[in-house]
Design goal:
The structure holds two protein chains of two kinds. By secondary structure, chain A is an alpha/beta fold. In chain A, 40% of the residues lie in helices and 23% in strands. The relative contact order of chain A is 0.16. In chain B, β1 and β2 form a beta hairpin.
Chain lengths: 281, 359
């Protein structure tokens, strides 16, 4: 008897969780309705009226990081400019990258601004905005380690990657056949900390972030940039196409009127703005 | 006692109430599961179809109706039952009815008002697990058990030593043991994992690695094992100390009066009795440690080192589907449920001669 009751309690709990999850969307729907009725600014439906909740790992300079208690970075400025033009204020929500897309799909926040590459797999779960940054990967190794390119990665070499990242997919496709062992981390800085600690031979991550990180890790260097034709986009729940559309609208404006260029030059001094992101002449 | 025909009818009625209640619960739970299984688990749409099918609806409503009947009949009639046995049957039928109605109502609510399609897609999408396959999950479950087992075993040995130190007459001997125990009991395990991992390799240049036959355990895995040993030792020490102190003072006095020294008395008289008493709480610690191994998700692990939680998170990051978490939960239960049973069984044996409550 006792055993059966325990089993029952378990099932009840699972069922309870299930129904709780199932009931969430209608609640959001209500919020949306109110939001549309009251404000006059070009408005987009968000979870909390007047607020754009943005999920980000906030450990990924120069795109998003915390400095002196404030969120700073290219993505941060861009997201805040977008929110501003939509008449919304940004509320930053810290989230681990490996679960960030499902979190936004489940509407834990309205938008992901986390230097996230637009990929087909991710598009299965979330909607992406138009691209806002062109990126590539980089192979980072300790200075003077003898690793000069990806060809030097051989049998049994431990290579660190960020869990759920495009760098991980690339490493699995290219380095695993070479015999490398892929070690995955829940956040990007730990990858480099462990590389410095000597637990890894090399690390693969987005190039701009890698470039920023090696400033703080003098023992590490970028040994090879890896072209992967990646484009970053903001991610949204598939249930909120209106917001995606609204963000795309103001993103185009921001690029057209040169605001994008100003922000870009602030974070990537000396780098030329790619033609597709240059202001309309 | 001779049963009158009226009493016989009442007793039969009690059995009927019990059957109603049991059938109600069977329909709500077993029936729904059977309907879903018959519709197929792959692809996930079949599960949704099964849940939303008219068969499932019939089964649910039938279960609810039977459950309500069992509740009404059971609780209105148990007082007039002729024997204790039939009274108990009527009550049991009513209680089963309550459980059936409660569960049935939740499933029904989920079906009608919830979003089964989305829920099943995210949490019971067995298809996404296929690419990984059983061996990968088995290996992850194995790693979970290895981490917990090593931690528990090492922790027990170190913990007993610490416990003996804390029982010393001399404060200078007790103090370091207390500091150790309070430190490891007073800081979060997740913090210990992070600080030892990076502290060892980054601060001290120590990269512990263990090779057992063909299997190499990397620095993160090895550090995790060490931290689990250190952490479990602190808790085990408290368990041992309590166990040793619970042995009657007369035992020590008797052993000493036979001419044994203090260490001899501890070894031959006190500790053996204490160990008997601390087995249930230590097994309990083991169950807790199995779940605490999930904290290694914060460390860098290679594919063959994934335990259940890291595998779940990895799979989730790769496929964006939370079914991996469901699978991990199932994996933990496969490991912990037999252990929980074992703990209860051992506890029962240890308690022999004492007053039993429940069971």
């Amino acid at each position: 008897m006792k055993r059966r009751n325990m089993f029952l309690a378990l099932i009840a709990l699972v069922a309870l969780l299930g129904s709780a999850c199932g009931e969430e969307p209608p609640a959001n729907g209500n919020g949306n309705g109110n939001g549309n009725g009251e404000t006059t600014a070009p408005t987009a439906p968000t979870i909390e009226e007047g607020v754009l909740m943005v999920g980000s790992c906030l450990d990924y300079a120069p795109f998003e990081s915390i400095e002196g208690g404030d969120e700073v970075g290219f993505d941060v400025d861009l997201a805040e400019e977008i929110a501003d033009r939509l008449g919304l204020t940004v509320e930053w929500v810290r989230a681990d990258f490996d679960t960030i897309f499902t979190a936004v799909a489940g509407q834990q926040f309205d938008m992901v601004a986390a230097a996230s590459t637009i990929t087909e797999e991710r598009q299965g779960v979330v909607d992406f905005s138009d691209p806002y940054y062109n990126s590539r990967q980089a192979l980072v190794a300790p200075t003077g380690s003898g690793i000069a390119s990806t060809d030097d990665i051989g049998d049994g070499d431990r290579v660190g990657v960020l869990r759920g990242s495009t760098g991980k997919s690339w490493a699995e496709d290219v380095l695993v056949p070479q015999g490398a062992e892929i070690v995955s981390y829940p956040n990007a800085p730990d990858t480099f900390r462990d590389l410095e600690a000597g637990n890894l031979v090399a690390a693969v991550n987005d190039e701009p972030f890698s470039a920023e990180v090696i400033k703080d890790f003098p023992g590490l260097e970028i040994v090879q940039p890896i072209d992967t034709d990646e484009e970053y986009g903001f991610a949204f729940s598939k249930d909120n196409p209106e917001l995606t559309e609204a963000v795309n609208g103001v993103l185009a404006e921001i690029i057209e009127d040169g605001t994008y260029q100003t922000i870009f030059e602030q974070y990537f001094p000396g780098v030329e703005v790619p033609p597709e992101y240059q202001p309309a002449v | 006692m001779i049963e009158t025909p009226a009493e016989g009818r009442q007793a039969a009625f009690a059995r009927l109430i019990l059957v109603f209640g049991a059938a109600a619960l069977g329909l709500v739970l077993g029936g729904t599961i059977l309907v879903v299984v018959f519709h197929g688990l792959v692809p996930y749409e079949n599960v949704v179809e099964g849940l939303l099918s008219s068969e499932a609806r019939i089964v649910l409503y039938a279960g609810l109706a039977l459950g309500v009947a069992a509740i009404i009949l059971g609780f209105s009639r148990y007082r007039v039952m002729p024997t204790k046995a039939s009274r108990e049957q009527a009550i049991a039928g009513g209680v089963l009815g309550i459980q059936a109605v409660f569960l049935g109502a939740i499933i029904l609510l989920f079906r009608e008002a919830g979003d089964p399609d989305r829920f099943v897609f995210h949490f019971f999408n067995v298809e996404v697990l296929r690419d990984y396959g059983i061996p990968v999950f088995a290996q992850a479950a194995g790693n979970t058990v290895i981490l917990a087992f090593v931690g528990e075993l090492g922790g027990i040995v170190l913990g007993l030593l610490l416990a003996l130190l804390t029982l010393s007459k001399r404060a200078v001997v007790r103090a370091p043991a207390r500091v150790y125990i309070n430190f490891f009991r007073g800081t979060p395990l997740i913090w210990q994992l992070g600080i030892f991992y990076f502290g060892f390799s980054l601060g001290l240049g120590i990269r512990p690695q263990i090779s057992v036959g063909p299997i190499d355990f990397g620095p993160a895995y090895t550090t995790a094992m060490i931290v689990f040993v250190l952490n479990t030792a602190a808790y085990a020490a408290e368990v041992f100390r309590a166990g040793i102190q619970s042995v009657e003072r007369g035992q020590m006095e008797a052993a000493r009066s036979l001419g044994m020294t203090y260490p001899q008395a501890m070894r031959h008289a006190i500790v053996p009795q204490a160990i008997r008493r601390v087995i249930p709480p230590l097994l309990n610690e083991f169950v807790i440690l199995i779940k605490d191994t999930s904290l290694v998700v914060i460390l860098g692990l290679a594919a063959n080192e994934y335990e259940l939680s890291t595998l779940a998170r990895q799979g989730y990051a790769d496929t964006f589907n939370a079914t991996f978490f469901t699978a991990a939960a199932a994996g933990y239960l496969v490991v912990t449920l037999p252990l929980i049973r074992a703990v209860n069984a051992v506890e029962k044996r240890m308690r022999s001669g004492l007053v039993t409550v429940g069971a």
